[in-house]
Every structure is written in C-alpha cells, then in structure tokens.
Amino acid sequence: MLKAAFFRTWGLATLTLLPFAALAQEGSTWVLASGTAPAPPQSAAGASALGGAGWVQPAASRSVTDGALRRVVLARLRPQAALFSGPTLISTGFAGHVYQRPILPTADREAARTSPDYQFIDLDGVVASLTNIDGYGFAPNGAEVTRPALDRFYAREVGQVFGATADDAPAPNLYLTATSAYGLNIVGPDRNDDHQPDRLHQGEPQARWMAGQWGFDPLSGPGSVWRVDGTTGQITLFATVATDGLANSGPGLGNIAFDPTHQQLFVSDLQSGLIHRFDLAGHDLDQFDHGLAGRSRDGLPPRPYDGSARSQITDFGFDPQAPETWGFADPMRRVWGLAVQGDRLFYAVAEGRAPRPEVWSIGLDAQGGFSPDARWELTLDPARPEFEISDMGFSADGALLLAQRGPRAPAFDFSSFTQEGTAEVLRYTRIAAPALGWSAAADHYAVGFADKLTNTTGGLALGPAYDALGRLDGGDCTGTLWTSGENLRNSGPYAAQLTAGGMLGVDGAQAQPLRLLYDQNAPPWVSYQTDFDAIYPTDPQTGHIGDVAVLGCPPKPEAAKPAPQACATSSVALHCDAESGHYVADVVVKSRTTLPLTRIKLTDPSGQLLGLPQELDFAKRLSVPVTGLGPHQIGQIAICAFDGTAGAAGAPYDCCNTTVTFETPAQACKKVIK
To answer: How far is CA 568 from CA 13, 360, 571, 589, 602, in A?
Structure first.
C-alpha cells in the first residue's frame, strides 16, 4: 500500500510516493517516521495572485525554547503580501472547537466523542477575518452576502482576540487584542492516561492555558496586543500590557482605538481598569486611571486598583465557568469601549455615578498625553439594558454610537459565552441647551431578525455608504453602520422570505444605513448580512462573534466622466393581485435608442425574487410577480433589452440595461377566494 504526498512547486505538480512502512499512524494524523509532521495544505491569502489555484504548501513550522526549556512551536511564516487592497471589513470571533481523540478502551470511545472533556480550541479555527466590501451589486434587502475572505488569522497564530483596529499608514497595519470574551480554558496533566491533557473545571497548581488561548509567541498571554504588518502581512507581538510589572493574569484586554492626530494607540485593560497609551513602536508611554483620576475629578470616592484581587489559574478558587473568579477590575474602574474624537478620548466604564454603564472622556494634550480634565459624559438611560459598552464610535454629525455586549455566560462545552439576544446598539445625540451634553434617552438600531432584534455581540464600525445599486459611495465615508451580531437571519415569522436570501443562522456582521434607526428599519430589511467564517452551526451558540472595524473609503476617481446617455428608462409600481395573493411589479420600459429591441431579460441581482430570471418578447409594460420578499424589503429588477435576432444567431449583440428598485408594502397581499 502506498500513500501519496502532493507538493506544488512553481506550477509544476510533482507526485512523490512514499512506502507505507515509512509512515506511522497516530490517531488520524500521519507523521513521517523521523517524527517531523508534514504541514497540511492551507488556503492561501490572495489566491488569485498565486495563479488562481488558491492552495500552497505552507512553510515548515519554527520552534523556540522558552525560559522553562519547553519547546514552543511558532506560527508558520505567512505569504509576503500587502494586507489590505481597498475597503475592508475586519471582524473577530471565537476559533471554534474540535474533538481530540483520546486513547481509550473500545467501550468508552463512543461516549468520549460527545464529552466536552475532549473538546479543545481549534488551533486552525479563524479568529480574525478580512473581507472586501467594495460594492455588492444590489440594494440592501436583508440578504446574506458571501465573499471569500481576503485573509484570515488563526488561533495557533494570535489566540483569541476581540478588539481590532488599523492605523493610517500608506499600507495600513492591523492591531488585535487578546480577550477572555470567549472564555478562559485551562488544562492539566494527563492523569487518566488517555494521551490528552485533562480539561479542568477549577484551577490547580499544575494548570496551564489551553493551546490556542493566547497565541504562538512564548511571551504572549492575556495582555497581548498583536500587530500584522500592512506591507508584508507578518504577525508580531506588538506589546504586552502589564500593571506594576505584573502581566495580565486572565481577564485580558477590552478594546483598542487608534489616534491619527498623535499616531498612537489606546488599549483598555479589564484586569486593572487602566487605559494604556502606546506609540506605534509598541512602547507603553503612560496610563490613565479612571478609578482615581476620573472619579476624583467628578467628586466621586476613588476606586484604587486592588492588586490582591488578581486571580491565577493555579489557584483552586479559579473557575472557568465563573467570571467573577477571573480577577476583573472593580466595575467602578473597569473600562472597555474606547473612541477618539478630536482632542478627547472617550471611554466606557462599567459603573460610575450610578450603578449603570457610563461614558466618560479625557482630554489629550499637544503631545497626545492625558490631560487632567476627565469628565462624565452620560449614563445609560433606564430604558436600556445594564450591559457593558464594549465598542464606541462617532457619526459625521457628532452623534455617539455605543455597542453593548451581553453578560458573560461561559459554558464548558463552548456553546455559549454571553446571554442570548439582549444587547443593543445605541445612539446619543449632542444637545447644546441648557449646557453642552447628550440626549437624555438613546435611540437604538435593529440588529438581526431574531427575537427582539437585539442580536449584537458588542462591535460597531462606520464605513462608506451604499447607493441604490449596492455600490460604495466614496463621498459618504461614514454612511453605513456595521455591527457584529449572531443568529442574524433566523426568524420564524420571516423564515420563508429570509431563506430566499441565504442562510438563516448567520453569525457575523450586519451593515445598514446609519440614518435608519429602529423605528425606520425593524426588522432590518434594509441591510446586508455576512457570516464570519462561513460555518453555520446547527446547535445554538451565543457570544462567538466579537468586534468589527472597517478600513475606509475607496480611492476617488481621477476625474469624473460624463455619464453616458441612457438607452432606456424604466419605472415600477406595485399592486396586489387578489387572485394569486401576491404583489405584482408593473414595470414600464421606454426605449431611447435606435437599436431594434425585440427581447428582454429580467433578473434579480440579489437572487431573491422567486419568479426571476425571465426572458420574453420586448414590451413597454411588464408584470413581474413579487414573491420571496418580506414587508418593507427592498427589491430590484435588472432589465436587459436586446436584439433577439442577433442573439438567436449567436452573434455579439448590444444590451440596453436599466434597473428598477422598489420597497414592498407593510401589509400582506391577501388572496380573495371567489
């Protein structure tokens, strides 16, 4: 028996046959007799640049020896390539888990397959993804948009991450922050001789972090900030957040914000409550302590950092399913969400003047340092859930946008990390009377179709607007609100309509016009939905999606070209067909060309109208059944009129294109039985 090993070398395929005796089987993994494991093929970033095949044999893993003389395997070298190439969605999430096969008696194997004791973080699971968002080709109508990722980062490289941002270098660099948002998972020695580390339900002296929790670098951990070079795509450990010389022991980091004016980064530490200020070389310049400087400035009792509250996984009191044992900072000093606006850094604290989440701000001096002018901005109004604010941003008109993340609820089987379907995306507007401040009550947005339309997972970002044809509008760089979310398209009342537009269990991000608040877009039919990793779980899961960030507007054209004269115009009106019980689109097409237009093709760019595509004889008036859309959903019909004689002859022919867009009514079309 022979086993083939396949290698790709500069477009020349070479097949090498290795004798079976030269291979040894260990579980389901093949290794060479020498003990050097061959790396599995990986999907390469920028596959089109590699000849379109999309697969390359990765470079061999590197290894180092840490201070305890342990061999540590480093991440494989990534392809040398620029990181970004146009408008991009950056999203983070949990890597997922895999079953690691133990060596057990035959009678115990079946039970082990479903036991959480043998579920471990998937080292090859995606934790951050880059996706092109440069126009979708159809109006936002609640459909799922699917595009292959431009690049992905894996648990074996950076561990679990939440916060994400990019700087404004000519080739922007990406920054990712370590997180406990997807749980803290620990293992111990193999005490039952099943050749797998034992998953632990509590800390103990020999506990260690599960592989994939924090990344490949020997110095990486809960305080890691990672940098991905924008020119080469290579990953390095940018900084390690520490307090009084002690590294973060588990709670991890909150979020990260880039300050373009002073070319620096701000990072919140969930263990100490401090906000750290880094230059772009990774130097920790100084820290701001809200518990002392912020609260004292407002006349509130100080809340100093209590180092004795630190928790270690080697302590018996540490419980992976009880976040209160992880050593988080006191809520009155614990900062998560961050955003830079002008010469001030805005930050979200878990509790402040009231036992509710609040937003504060601190000024930045000419050098970018912290000014002694911390001030309270707002307290979440009583109508909003008392959940922490994990991300923040500002619209062009100065409104403050806040994303909440649900309370921590980690499960041993990785099924949940937060409470389900309860967190919101909020909007507060500036007021000038009687004094400069914020609106007393927040507006909010509909996120996802499930439950109460409150399916965010704590991330938001602003990106370029989309026009009626799904093209990016470079003149409006903040017209689209992107929010992270889960179970976005899963709704019983609208299941039939949503199924026509893609998968239901979408966990990832929603994009919608920033101007459409909850009352104007609930359910969010005017939106695009995109999945994080194209893995659609069949079992319920919560809290698996993290943050989102968006990289800027597309480059503006060098010079505006005059629009060509339309060869046809079109209009549309809807009416209810009582006989069928469906709405019908009455389309009027008027030719403005001398071309002999004898045939017409009708298509739906989003693929949701069940009666399309169609091809028929050209007529000025057409009737198209509107089935497959929900109430208030945007529909489009692309019209291609052409010379049918030329088309039938197989000769090249000109097509006269136009598009009509419509919105379905709120009321259902009822069938009248005669």
So the answer is: 51, 55, 10, 7, 14
Q: What is the mean pLDDT of the chain?
A: 87
Return the CATH number at 614.
2.60.40.10
Distance separating alpha carbons of residues 509 and 530, to the nearest angstrom: 5
What residues does 602 pair with on adjacent strands? 614, 639
Instruction: Say if residue 523 is preceded by a cis peptide, omega within 30 of 0.
Output: yes
Quote the CA–CA distance of 84 and 346 in Å, as a whole number. Answer: 28
472 SS3 class: strand
Examine the domain organization and report whether 425 and 491 are in the same domain.
yes
The model's pTM is 0.85
Q: Is residue 188 part of a domain?
A: no
- Residues 404 and 547 reside in one and the same domain: yes
Q: How far apart are the first and last CA of the chain?
A: 73
Q: Can you count the helices (H) and strands (E) in the chain?
A: 5, 50
* pLDDT tens-digit series, residues 62-79: 566 655 565 565 656 788
Residue 27: the pLDDT is 33
Say if residue 540 is in the same domain as residue 574.
Answer: no
Where is the domain boundary, 533, 557, 581?
557
Residues 586 and 499 in one domain: no
Task: Give pLDDT tens digits for 144-162.
Answer: 999 999 999 999 999 999 9
Q: Are 550 and 130 contacting, i.e. CB atoms less than 8 angstroms apart?
A: no
Shared domain for 427 and 551, answered yes or no, is yes
Residue-number span of the structural domain to which 522 is assigned: 380-557
Residues 6 or more apart in contact with residue 635 via CB below 8 angstroms: 139, 141, 585, 604, 608, 609, 626, 629, 661, 662, 663, 664
Which of 557, 577, 597 is the last residue before a domain boundary? 557
Q: Let me know: does 438 contact 431? Beta carbons within 8 Å.
A: yes
Q: Is residue 511 part of a domain?
A: yes
Total number of domains constituting the chain: 2
Which class for 650: exposed (0-12), middle (13-18), buried (19 or more C-beta within 10 A)? exposed
Pairing relationship of beta strands 208-209 and 198-199 according to DSSP bridges = unpaired
What's the CA gap between 667 and 206, in Å, rounded? 63
